[in-house]
TrEMBL record:
<dbReference type="GO" id="GO:0006629">
    <property type="term" value="P:lipid metabolic process"/>
</dbReference>
<dbReference type="GO" id="GO:0008081">
    <property type="term" value="F:phosphoric diester hydrolase activity"/>
</dbReference>
<dbReference type="Pfam" id="PF03009">
    <property type="entry name" value="GDPD"/>
</dbReference>
<dbReference type="InterPro" id="IPR030395">
    <property type="entry name" value="GP_PDE_dom"/>
</dbReference>
<protein>
    <submittedName>
        <fullName>Glycerophosphoryl diester phosphodiesterase</fullName>
    </submittedName>
</protein>
<feature type="domain" description="GP-PDE">
    <location>
        <begin position="30"/>
        <end position="263"/>
    </location>
</feature>
<dbReference type="InterPro" id="IPR017946">
    <property type="entry name" value="PLC-like_Pdiesterase_TIM-brl"/>
</dbReference>
Amino acid sequence: MRVILYIFSIVALFTVVYGGRQTVRYAKVPAASGHRGANTIAPENTMASADSCIKYGIGNIECDICISKDSVFYLMHDSTLDRTTNGTGKICEWMSADIDTLDAGSWFGPEFAGQRVPRFVDLLRRARQAGMRLAVDFWNGDMRKLLELIKEEGMLESCNFSFYKEKDMRLFRSLEPDVKTLQAYVRSRDELEYVVNEFKPNVVVVHIDSLTPDFMKKCRGYNLQVVALVLGLEDKTAENRKAVELGVDIVATDRPDAFVKEYGRER
């Protein structure tokens, strides 16, 4: 079961009248989380993508963590290098010195030629300098070592975590019982009740199509923060508006720049 961790924001709205026309304005809107960075502007899971989020005032970046053969953590969504680099094969079978030479940008556009596969530590440092939070998708590797790295960089309280296996959720809870960052991906009321009882998350992630006022009320009844998944490269204006009007805390989006254009900068 997927678990993702994010921060929150409170939503409020009021009505302003301009020349007889009523226009809804929001006193505070959900925070935006850039899915793999600003991946419609720059290649996903690269420093260029992270820097684009910083440029647009996005305070949160979702990233995917994989590990090399010699146990170095990198940003990479796929288990293989083929789609987003000029390398081939599984990243876990490559040494870090070789991964560091790969081109992770040319596939997206010639202007990004030479972008490297970032080491996770480099993103941690960039995020710390910029005052950003990271939503960390944990795919494989030594969780203890990953947490040690995050602590060494002083970013434990600024990182939220995603897990895809229940055993990883349980391990995280055993290692960090006091960290209030556990968030569960849920699709139904039954799943919501299950993860609340089993893992006691602080946050839940729900696809925008599944979110309803009743679902929101149920989440708030458990004192949960809510993240709306609004993913996809097509126009998401209606979905973003629905998320804002429902009062979610975070909008996870592939188009954080479009969200900021509509609702304003967070930072």
